[in-house]
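Sanity check

After download, print the first record. It should look like this:
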Amino acid sequence: MDLLAHFNFRAMPFTREVLVSELFAHPQRDDITDAILRIIDQRMSGALIAPAGFGKTTLLRTVRDRLPEVRYDVRYVKVTSLSKRDMCREISAALGLRSAGTYPSLVRAMQEAVSHRVADDGVRTVLILDEAHDMRPDVLSMLRVLTNFDMDSRLVLSVLLVGQPPLAKMLRRADLEDLTQRIAWFGSLRALSRAEVTAYVDHRCRIAGASEPPFDDRAMATLYEMGRGNPRATDRLARRALETAHRAGDACVGAQHVIAARATLQP
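Expected structure tokens:
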């Protein structure tokens, strides 16, 4: 609380607790969001691939928020390295289904549930698989079966694979070509530019209640150089720099505070 009062914040800045309406917007993020919404509207599947900390999960929150509940049932699964049957159980649980005993019966139950939801309520299921780079190739190939409805004559389920760069490498495997051909869109997030990092830090400070960000120009430049445009890394560094400046009794965060903060964040 002393830190908040020291820098005139209402809430702690640079945390993950941000409303969808308060997320930082910039053209690339908006373009990716619109692209994902388009492929879902077209009843297709896609893949979003970017390094850790680039904002994939926060972007997914925006996508989910913009899909009307009367038309879409969005289900989210955070992937771990599981067998086909165990992954099916995870997806079944996300869909609210009672788990069946065998892999074929699990797949059949999931397909029937998704099909009935469309036929009975006009609601299409969107399955988001986050951290998909952790999936085993044989489990990833399962999605080809899961999205095959009526001998591939119906587009019922949209799957969005989200993961780090190893996912792209895995999708280039010859044994996954059939699955890759079912993915209609591939997208990626880039690092923020220097100007975008400045705008991002300013935005995060203002939604936390500050009328002006307590970082001077050199601190902003250092945040960009050390955070390399990675939003999550920038958050951690900026928050620790605030703590460092507060302990020193300084009213403004300078480059020296950012440098000192970086030293405490390294292993």
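If your output differs, re-run the checksum step. Summary of this record's structure: The longest strand covers residues 72-78.
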